[in-house]
Amino acid sequence: GTTTRLSLGWRDGRPRRNAVVTLRDGGRGIAAADLPLLFERYSRFAAGTGEADPPSGHGLGLWLVKPVLERHHGTIICESTPGVGTTFVITLPEAPPDSVADS
Q1: Where exactly are the structural domains of the chain?
Q2: Within its chain, how far is the Cα of 3 from the centroid?
Q3: What is the C-alpha separation between 19 and 9, in angstroms, rounded?
Q4: pLDDT digit string (tens) for 55-93?
Q5: How many of the other CB atoms lie within 10 Å of CB of 13?
Q6: Cys-Cys crosslink for 47: which of 13, 26, 28, 99, Cβ 3.0 to 4.6 Å?
Q7: Model pLDDT, residue 50
Q8: Are the CB atoms for 42 and 59 separated by under 8 Å?
Q9: CATH topology of domain 4-94
Q10: Cα(41)–Cα(64) distance, rounded to whole angstroms?
Q11: Does residue 101 surpass a pLDDT of 70?
Q12: Which of 82, 81, 70 is nearest to 90 (CA)?
């Protein structure tokens, strides 16, 4: 298997700063031609490296994640190179202090 790295941080933004989550692996990668379709419903892709392995999953995960992030004014982007790996970057704006309910 490959190692997946997760990093969390903050990026200055206007009017608020953004939480940034980065997921990076050294896996098989995704072909450039498939990247524009990555967030489409039921999208599943081969590894992009000429392997005969069938795609796994149901093609719903990223299709569900993107609108949830957008509803919260966040973003998700993907960069990938076949044979090198894939990086997802998720950003979410910091909630204003008065919008967080007291527990």
Answers
A1: 4-94
A2: 16
A3: 6
A4: 778 889 999 999 999 999 999 999 999 999 999 999 999
A5: 12
A6: 28
A7: 53
A8: yes
A9: Heat Shock Protein 90 (3.30.565)
A10: 8
A11: no
A12: 70
* Residue where the block lists tokens 């524009």: 36
Q: In the structure encoding, which two tokens stand for residue 87, read together?
A: 């990086």
SS (H, E, C) 39-95: CCCCCCCCCCCCCCCCCCCCCCHHHHHHHHHHHCCCEEEEEEECCCEEEEEEEEECC
Q: How many residues does the chain have?
A: 103
Q: Which single residue is written with the structure tokens 């072909």? A: 31
Give one word for 29, left, alpha or beta, with left for phi > 0 and alpha for psi -120 to 50: left
Give the phi and the psi of residue 40 in degrees, each rounded to 5: -80, 150
Question: Which whole number is the average pLDDT over 22-41?
Answer: 92
